[in-house]
Amino acid sequence: MQDIRWSTFWFFVLEIIVFLIISNIYSIEDGLIVCLCLMSCFLLVHIFWVYKLSKWLNNPTLSNLPHGTGIWQNIFSKHYQILKDSKKSKKNLVSTLDQFTQAAEALMDGVVVLNENNEIIWSNRRSQVMLNLNSKKDTGQPINYIFRNTDLINYLEKGNYEESIKINLEANSTKTIEIKIVMFGGAQKVLIAKDIGQAIKIESERKEFISNVSHELKTPLTVISGFIETLEDMFSISGEKQKNILKMMGDQAYNMSKLIDDLLLLSNVESSIFQNRSEKLLMNVIISKIKKNISILDSKRHRIKYQIDNNLSIYGSKKEIESAFLNLITNAIRYTDKDGFISISWGLINGLAIFEVRDTGCGIKPMHINKITERFYRVDADRSRNSGGTGLGLSIVKNIIKQHDGQLKITSEVGKGSSFKLIFNKESII
């Protein structure tokens, strides 16, 4: 830009000098004519090179770039460098894009890129096999028109992609995929489809194994417990050591029996075997039964307050709901000191039925909250075992509320206590 300004400046300086010389030698009119001729030539030269540049821009290649003269030589040189850099950047970009495409094609998961209208922009080979897509025909088409599935359509319409969804591709559930959508670039989406059929099969076999082992262990354990009781009744043992041995055997047999019962319950809840979850549950009757059980279990005699809406009832499995409620209350009793306070409430909040157990116990550190619903996870292993915990209580509760299409919400503060909420959806309310 500066070269153009200087070139123009020196041209006008030359014009003035020529005008002064011609006007002094001949006349002012002759000086003006010569200056006009020089200016016309100057403009014609620039118009010529502007035409050349315009013509080249229609087909910009390095081979047919004009050389130019004067300032235009610099202009064409800069265009040459820009075009060269652009070609190099484009080549690098194409190479990077090819590498990305190859990497996406190598993934074991299906990947589909969607625009804001859920139209397919790109898909890898794995997704084409999973979702029966055709890369040529289906690109630009809405995915819900190609892969017709009610769960996927609802998932896309709701727009809440925090959780993934599972879709059975076959009636016998041998082929199941998990779909997760991730937002990027504003309104665009990446759909990730993962084949979890094998994982589900392994998990089912594991649950079946645990259930079978638990059933097989229950019978010999019942026999052992019976013999221990018989020994206590048959023999009058005077020695303190012998009494302690029999008591320890009895306690451990009871703990094992309780653990097996919890394993069986968890296995049944997870596999949904023969469970009717559409029973009409009279919650006032269930809470009254739980109160009686708690009065027997609560050896520490905590201060327990009940706030129960007797008119609020739900649909569900009576056995499972009782187990979930009782587990939360016994958990609060187990981890709350003798002088502690426990609040148990059941009512309607914002249109949702909520059962809450709040205690003033020791509390839970934030790093444990997301893990305490895992099987056998204990925040304080020694305290849990000493108080008779199996490490399965919260796992059972989480699976029960999940099977009832509800949610378990845990909040806690160390040293101040914890709150456990079972939130039932609107459809479950009678």
Question: What's the SSE blueprint?
Answer:
Elements: H1 2-25, H2 28-58, H3 71-106, E1 110-114, E2 120-123, H4 125-131, H5 143-146, H6 150-158, E3 165-168, E4 176-184, E5 188-195, H7 197-234, H8 240-271, E6 279-281, H9 283-297, E7 303-308, E8 314-316, H10 318-334, E9 341-349, E10 352-359, H11 366-369, H12 381-386, H13 393-403, E11 407-413, E12 417-424
Helix pairs in contact: 1-2, 7-8, 8-13, 9-10, 10-13
Would you give an account of this structure?
The chain has 430 residues and is an alpha+beta fold. The chain has four domains: 2-89, no CATH class; 107-195, PAS domain (Beta-Lactamase); 200-271, Helix Hairpins (Orthogonal Bundle), CATH 1.10.287; 279-428, Heat Shock Protein 90 (2-Layer Sandwich), CATH 3.30.565.10. The protein has helices at residues 2-25, 28-58, 71-106, 125-131, 143-146, 150-158, 197-234, 240-271, 283-297, 318-334, 366-369, 381-386, 393-403, and strands spanning 110-114, 120-123, 165-168, 176-184, 188-195, 279-281, 303-308, 314-316, 341-349, 352-359, 407-413, 417-424. A five-stranded antiparallel sheet has the order 2-1-5-4-3, sandwiched between helices. The chain has a five-stranded mixed sheet with strand order 7-9-10-12-11. A two-stranded antiparallel ribbon has the order 6-8. Helix 1 (2-25) runs antiparallel to helix 2 (28-58), helix 7 (197-234) packs antiparallel against helix 8 and helix 10 (318-334) runs antiparallel to helix 13 (393-403).
